[in-house]
């Protein structure tokens, strides 16, 4: 395997490569007032459902599990589904969102690493989002906002450990690029979803 000639640490490379789109995404999401009421929050949850449905295959990929032990147990898809049930999102909409997410076929392990970076990283921002959800909607880690719960080791510890594994991998430049492209793909998918569901979601879900 060719060693990377790019000396930037892998997790920093991913962070820098996705910084602009993350920035744009979180400003857009907050602009749409996702915690204004249950109908707005339903749109937010559906966005999470699409993202986690797309990423789920990566959590069960054997090659990825060989690289990142126990990643299978970190999947938050079931928590998102329970949140959707708590918020009474109609089952047809949930199925539609899952099907759309599942259209992604992420078979390349380096692409898988990129998707994982984006999904696992989203637990960091969730610390702040959880406060809003609790204050505005009265939801919690055990009802409606289960997918935002911190890992039992704590968010920061889990993220540090995850990044340490990423940074210990020996990847060549092409593999790093494949991972970055996939991390961006996950962000773009979410951004498109936000514009599709969170702008019109209120009408669609409540109407
Ligand atoms: C309104 C929505 C969001 C807000 C306000 C937000 C906010 C944040 C904040 C404050 C951090 C840094 C936390 C820290 O360093 O302790 C962070 C990290 C991150 N978020 Fe978000 N986020 C949002 C949505 C998302 C979504 C939907 C995704 C995935 C598609 C995502 C992916 C990430 C990633 C990958 C990181 C880790 C960056 C790194 O340090 O490498 N975020 N987010």
TrEMBL record:
Domain of life, source organism: Bacteria
Protein name, as recorded: Heme oxygenase
GO biological process: heme oxidation
Protein species of origin: Methylophaga muralis
Any one GO MF annotation of this record: heme oxygenase (decyclizing) activity
Pfam family, one: Heme_oxygenase
InterPro entries per the UniProt record, alphabetical: Haem_Oase-like, Haem_Oase-like_multi-hlx
């Amino acid at each position: 395997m060719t060693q990377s000639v790019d000396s930037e640490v892998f997790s920093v490379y991913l962070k820098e490569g996705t910084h602009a789109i993350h920035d744009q995404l979180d400003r857009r999401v907050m602009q749409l007032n996702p915690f204004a009421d249950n109908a707005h929050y339903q749109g937010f949850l559906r966005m999470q459902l699409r993202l986690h449905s797309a990423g789920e295959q990566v959590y069960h990929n054997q090659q990825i599990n060989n690289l990142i032990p126990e990643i299978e147990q970190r999947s938050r898809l079931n928590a998102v589904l329970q949140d959707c049930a708590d918020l009474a999102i109609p089952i047809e909409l949930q199925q539609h969102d899952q099907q759309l997410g599942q259209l992604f076929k992420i078979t390349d392990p380096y692409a898988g690493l990129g998707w994982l970076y984006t999904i696992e990283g989203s637990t960091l921002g969730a610390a702040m989002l959880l406060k809003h959800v609790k204050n505005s909607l009265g939801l919690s880690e055990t009802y409606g906002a289960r997918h935002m719960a911190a890992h039992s080791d704590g968010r920061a510890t889990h993220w540090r450990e995850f990044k340490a594994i990423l940074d210990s991998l020996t990847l060549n430049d092409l593999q790093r690029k494949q991972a970055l492209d996939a991390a961006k793909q996950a962000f773009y998918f979410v951004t498109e979803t936000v514009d599709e569901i969170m702008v019109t979601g209120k009408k669609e879900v409540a109407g």
